[in-house]
Amino acid sequence: MAEKKMQVDSLHHQMTTVKDMDEAIHLYRDILGLELSARLIVPNDILPDDVGSSKVFQDGINHVWEIATLDNWKGAPIELCHPIYPEVIVSGNTSNTPLSGTTDYGYTGHTEQGFAVTDINAWYDWIVQNGYRPQSPVWEAAPGCYSFAFYDKEGNVIQLYEDPAHPAVPSWTKMDLPMNDFRTPEQKAWAESTY
Question: Can you name the residues that pair with 85 across neighbouring β-strands?
Answer without folding.
Answer: 64
